[in-house]
Design goal:
Length: 311
Amino acid sequence: MVDFNSTSFHPATFQLTGFPGQEAAHHWISIPFCVVYITAIVGNCTVLCIIWADRRLHQPMYLFLCMLSVNDLGVSLSTLPTVLSTFCFDVTDVAFDACLAQMFFIHFFSNMGSGILLVMSFDRFVAICDPLRYTAILTNPRIVRIGLAVVIRSFSVVLPLPILIKRLPFCRAEALSHAYCLHPDVMRLACADITVNNIYGLCAVLFVFGIDLLLIVISYILILKTIFSIASGGQRLKALNTCISHVCAVLIFYIPMITVSVIHRYGENAPPLVHILMSSVYLFMPPVINPIVYSIKTKEIRKSILKMFSR
């Protein structure tokens, strides 16, 4: 399994893991995964098509929602090949380079998701705290530049991860803990010092997710301060209602991510099933729930969906 002609002893393949001890039930387990993927892809494509077709929705809030939907599609499509091959076809081998590529895209889209949620909180902050200058501040060219900045930041932060893995030798069992490749999972299989990988991984998490979450919290503190200064109760409720969808998206994204990080670092004695389930919730639930929440809570998108089905 190990290519000893390579100076870094890279394995030819890694072994993916579904649910340990439940191999006989993998075909049944594949059914909910297929439902999740279909729901995520159809839901996010529907949101994109509705916003694309209706020129009235070509506004900053909906353009940022398009970014979130594209990112959610990226997360789903990054994990789909190995998850379905593991559970549907019992094909558990993944090539070393293919594993690194999947690892890059999973972490790339996860980092992008955090940046997009931060940008969406800035959008809500401007819309509520400075509504008269909303369209002047968030012009289309500026939105494009903001989107490019999120992509470049995510790419720059994630690119070193596969490079750091490439330098490590692997000389132990190549069985991963999931049906997809994640950086913490892959680096633990190395038979060398992984201090650099650990430190960089922790710094990347703090730099991206930590700073983004802090800025989102600060923006909502300022938003709430502005909302509670509004005299009219009806206007106060209307302003709060415009933020509910984004708050749900933030909670759906960050709560599972924080839980996974805590379990990885402090839950070594936790059953493997807990690690697998929480990682699955972190990766698979936001792409499914985000389009549902935005479709239900955003009046314009809800009306467009009803209009589309009525036809």
